[in-house]
């Protein structure tokens, strides 16, 4: 029997056909235009109008596991194949359509090309007696040359989870493409501390879009450690549409002779919502990087408290860096602060470290790691998480490689 | 026997530090006009002078700060050309500078910073590396002796430290690195009475083991406690006077403007 075409797949393809790709002057992308639409399609065949009769192995190349085996019963995973209509329906169930922003093109492209899916339900400690949060590892290996995964994470009301998201890229493979969509939904009073490391190979092209929705009293903290590549977009959209919801983001970004675009969009529509964004970019050589933060406070968002702080340090060469801290405030009773700094290396601290015996390269690496770590720590209540979740080791490795002029 | 430029009667040993006609510029300005001095192992020299006389510049120059450009003169340390060495080479050779205002290093834990520095110095001496456990045991013990809360070892270097804590942290680094020559720039500023006592005890203990000191200070009580071999007064980038504790007492009583200079005005 011939499989029935998936309506949303056809819609996505129709949308792409009618609207084309991201315009060169699109506001969010004009400083670092993405590769053309053709770069984000699977090789050989154009996206099919019908699901294939042969299904993928949706479990290949990624996994979720509890870092403490005793917590293995606190979450459920479902690996789904979007080329199978029933599984596709389960995978995309309840997800919003791409919005009308410039970045929606990536969303439509993802809908049209999605090849594997994962739904993760985090129940937390059902009895509510756990002294420690659930600690999970989400490992995603990118199969070259093309990958378009979808991850949906639901965190149950009251649950507290620390999620370490790691990506593996094959530096030996030819240029790879990954268009990842990640949806996170936090229930009432839930808390997710999301630690992400994304270090693609130099020729890879990446677009990661995260959509975070918080229920009342929920908290979302993200720390991101990412390096540049041929093209690397990290976009996070956070909706604070319920009272007392809060989000913090800390990012340590490294671009050496590579491209990196961070876009953060925060929407405050409810009262007593809080958000803090801080990004530090190290840029070297002929890097081309953009830090773009946009926070919107809607009418009625009483006592919203928002902060943005973007900074960049040139480490070598003549990198091209654009920082865009942007706030759109439609309510009076709010607290808001934002700023951007483009600064030189901290010469006094560098001399101090060398005067204590460290050679220049070691001193520089130590100090830059420290600056990055300080940014990440501010996005977490527990700085020791960075050590406990192996983030320190990744930070040291990526900083060393950055200073060596590599992105890997 | 010979007599060095500081006026101290010396035995046959070579000076640990020998500076000749040192001229230093910062940007377009000449800060040190001509400085000559010899310092031997175990010797303690106190450097006094009005603000802007060049005291800090001398320490920063000898330590190799890149902003301070030597335009004339020479400096030999332990028989080597000091000015040809990078800052870390000078440190590894045993030259320690305690800064007047030690900088913050955000995100770098004090213990990690100290252990990294100590292991860099040990590696240059061919000594084995200290692991974190051994280092922390020693560092905590030394911190306790100096009245420094051991919790500060787990905090970023100098970040949020009080003035006194910064100076005690400098003393801890001094104790752990055990240099041949320590240049202490206003080590007493910000310290309470117990802190000043800790400075005296630390300096005297290391001096007895052969470490030489150049101490910049304005406070007679500390200077007297340190029992210096020599007191130097710097003025406009030159050594204007050389003396003993009596000179320090004289300066404390009358200030830096000397009688002869007043007469010339």
Care to describe what's here?
The complex is a heterodimer of chains A (408) and B (265). Chain A is built from 7 helices and 19 strands. Chain A is α/β, with parallel strands linked by helices and 408 residues long. In chain A, strands 2, 3, 5, 6, 8, 10, 12, 14, 16 and 18 form a 10-stranded mixed beta sheet that branches. A 9-stranded mixed beta sheet of chain A has the order 1-4-7-9-11-13-15-17-19, with helices on one face. Chain B is of the alpha/beta class and 265 residues long. Chain B has a single domain, classed as 3-Layer(aba) Sandwich (Rossmann fold), CATH 3.40.50. Chain B has a 6-stranded mixed beta sheet, sandwiched between helices. In chain B, strands 4-3-6-7 form a 4-stranded antiparallel beta sheet, with helices on one face. The radius of gyration of chain B is 18 Å and the shape is globular. At the A-B interface, helix 4 and helix 5 of A face helix 2, strand 9, helix 3 and strand 10 of B.
Task: List descriptors.
heterodimer, A: 408 residues, alpha/beta, ten-stranded mixed beta sheet, 7 helices, 19% helix, 40% strand, globular, B: 265 residues, Rossmann fold, six-stranded mixed beta sheet, four-stranded antiparallel beta sheet, 37% helix, 28% strand, disordered N terminus
